[in-house]
Amino acid sequence: MIDLIAYVSGIGVRGPGLSGWLETHAVLSGGKSWAWTETALPVPETLPPTERRRTGRVVRLAFAAGLEATRQASVDPAGLPIVFSSSSGDGDNCNEICKTLATANRELSPTRFHNSVHNAPAGYWSIATGSQVASTTICAYDASFAAGLLEAVVQMAAQGAATALIAYDIDYPQPLRAVRATAAPFAIALVLQPDRGHNTLARLNVRLDEGDPDRVVHPDLNGMLSSIPAAHGLILLEAIAARSRTSLNIRYLEPQTLHIEVSP
Amino acid sequence: MTPLAMTGFTATTGLGQGLEAMTGALREVRSGLGRCDFEDVDLDTWIGRVPGVESTPLPRAYERFDCRNNRLAFLGLHQDGFLDAVAACVGRVGPSRVGLFIGTSTSGILETELAYRQRDGATGALPAAFNYAGTHNAFSVADFTRQLLGLQGPAAVVSTACSSSAKAFGCAQRMMALGLIDAAVVGGVDSLCLTTLYGFHSLQLTSSHPCRPFDADRDGISIGEAAAFALLERPSGRDDAGTIALLGIGESSDGYHLSAPHPEGLGARLAMQAALAAAGTAAAEVGYINLHGTGTRSNDSAESRAVGDIFGAAVPCSSTKGATGHTLGAAGAVEAVIGAIALRHNLIPGGVNTTRVDPAFHIDYRTRSQVRPLAGVLSNSFGFGGTNCSLVLGKLS
What we know:
Oligomer: heterodimer
Distance between the termini of chain B: 15 Å
Largest interface: A-B, 66 and 66 residues
Number of helices of chain B: 12
Shape of chain A: globular
Helix content of chain B: 25-40%
Strand content of chain A: 15-25%
């Protein structure tokens, strides 16, 4: 078994009733009750206005979580490699494209088409930050959070440099919602460092293992795991919020799980 | 980085199924493009369509994965003894020590496009037979391939538009370097669909001619489809001299525009330089560059500047997209395999369809194939979102 060590120095969260890490931390540690409210999706002020107009919910979601995490970690986003991970990408845009292609004239808007690439949030992010370092965008269906976290930790370890994860999913409109019922927009972003620093929030010891995935202990948030792939990261955030030494399994690809030992 | 042996590789494109068809066409500077006859598409454009995809149903056990993209993957995996090579590798290291990283841009979205035409008149519902996870989701091709190959190691789909399957090599390389896995199947699978045909048309990027990369009169791309795979293993140190290997990989972002390259090819240059540095290869050791070379005005112009900045006009270059079409998310893997063919046969493939190289470009663009000793090949893949990836291939010493 190979263990990979990463230090979390920034966390961003966006989900229903969870606007930011402070609020999520309070909910997860029992200091605040949780109630379902629509995921707040601010317009990304870091994008130039021409680009901002072209962005949909999925870009706003990824930006909101990513900006929160990078600001908290006080890292320069222009020099930060990022792993974007999403199960379904931009379901709104996909729905519009499929509707148009089912009509007689099939005339797609160029913006819809260029937004259709799975790496559109990564592209907008690099424009907003002026970043020329590599980013990647991956997918592993329901295992997308663990696959994204593993890829980010691997990149960080391979390059010996800070790397971020932005895992995000939005809900599909009908008719795709009937066959893929993602409950709500949800994103988690983490900045991972190879060494402990003054702003370390948690130490992660990550390895591939076998075993059953864990659930979130918080009774109100558990339901999100079965319907939002990115929400699987709540298991990790709950352990970080507890600020004690614990270990957990996050759903990955059978027969493997992502085993993480979390300590302050 | 430590070189990784490519102990198996194969590609299926519009040139035909497997390496022999591809090698013959590259030698003879032949194109696999034809006038668009896909579905009921009414565009004046040319495509690189793989023959026999429709008549390759998946075995019953894989019914839920049945779609054009996975049929193409299935067809591609059955060429050149690739399944046997993977099985032998799994036997040596165990199924959980073999990773799987596949690049695709559109996965099985054709199924969804067709399903939208069959929505229920009253409820708008998709037909009951539509299987989202098995066809539409980007991961479907990796899920299918992982099950077919009996792999239990880490896996992911990389979906970064037209750099997807080049970047899949990077996922494998990093995990192998850290010791998480001992081997990896990497590849790219992308298939014809309406989204890309009408989408590139909406951007006025499809040509009404077979695409002419780097030609003065180039006017756009021809879309193709392909399945290409490679098996990467650590060199054994025994009897592997001359084995074709991945020597270096470099990735970058443009940070410039979502669907247009940086005009001076800045991101492209960074990716090539990073790949050369990772390989420890001097620019002078590269004997052939397989260009991204899509045939659009802007791509070829930016790429020629970036290549010229690093290599001058000293290294023979060509784009093979006039032969295969632009296979989008599969292009990186297809062109890695073309690089491997070039090294195996000491063959510089001439670029097809190009009759007059743009006089503004100061690189050594080849339109005729040539046999000459090759030690190193560089392959470029760039994509929407300003994502760039370059691979350096060579032979183990």
